């Protein structure tokens, strides 16, 4: 688990991933009505079918510490490669945006990844300015741009 002053990032088990994809909510789940986000479904399906997921570089629920509500997700696309590079993605439900929560989650996850041995991080976003601001505030640098996407990277140091 990864904690920040306002958030708790909880690893998602294959069993929980399957329930999220199927929409099988239990009373204790405390998922925001807009969760899961559509672009999380593919990685969640992959995790649900995984027999041995990576215990660290996996998918995480993003929960508010104040009330325990799951407001989004953050995921690593596997463990670091041979150069120590990880890729990640994140998303929050619309009601949770604009309060710095995504930046807080990304910064904490990158610190956690560095502690676990990752040496650099990469992320891709569409041309949405809010997503670009999150990555820039988290210390990422734009390294490339296409007509539809912006590519970011950052070296990681142990906190």
Q: What's the SSE blueprint?
A:
Elements: E1 2-3, E2 7-11, H1 14-22, H2 41-48, E3 59-64, E4 70-76, E5 85-92, H3 101-115, E6 120-126, H4 129-137, E7 141-145, E8 149-155
Parallel strand pairs: 5-6
Antiparallel strand pairs: 1-2, 2-3, 3-4, 4-5, 6-8, 7-8
Helix pairs in contact: 1-2
Summary, kept brief:
With about 160 residues, the protein is an alpha+beta fold. Helices cover about 25% and strands about 30% of the residues.
> How many strands in all?
8
The biggest beta sheet is recorded as:
8 strands, mixed
The Rg value, from CA coordinates, equals 15 Å
Average the pLDDT over all residues and give the rounded result: 95
Describe this structure in words.
This protein has 159 residues and is of the alpha+beta class. The protein has a single domain, classed as 3-Layer(aba) Sandwich (Aminopeptidase). It contains four helices and eight strands, in the order ββααβββαβαββ. Strands 1-2-3-4-5-6-8-7 form an eight-stranded mixed sheet. The longest helix is centred in the C-terminal third of the chain and has 15 residues. The chain is globular and about 45 Å long. The model has no long low-confidence stretch (mean pLDDT 95).
Features:
single chain, 159 residues, alpha+beta, Aminopeptidase, eight-stranded mixed beta sheet, 8 strands, globular
């Amino acid at each position: 688990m990864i904690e920040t002053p306002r958030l708790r990032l909880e690893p998602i088990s294959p069993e929980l991933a399957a329930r999220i994809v199927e929409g099988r909510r239990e009373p204790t789940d405390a998922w925001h009505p807009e969760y899961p986000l559509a672009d999380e479904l593919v990685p969640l399906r992959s995790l649900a079918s995984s027999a041995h997921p990576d215990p660290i570089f996996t998918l995480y629920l993003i929960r508010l510490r104040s009330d325990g509500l799951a407001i989004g997700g953050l995921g690593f696309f596997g463990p670091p490669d041979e150069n120590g590079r990880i890729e990640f993605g994140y998303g929050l439900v619309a009601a949770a945006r604009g309060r710095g929560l995504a930046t807080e989650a990304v910064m904490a996850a990158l610190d956690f990844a560095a502690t676990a041995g990752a040496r650099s991080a990469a992320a891709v976003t569409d041309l949405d300015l809010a997503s670009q601001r999150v990555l820039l505030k988290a210390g990422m640098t734009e390294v490339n741009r296409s007509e539809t996407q912006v590519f970011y990277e950052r070296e990681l140091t142990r906190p």
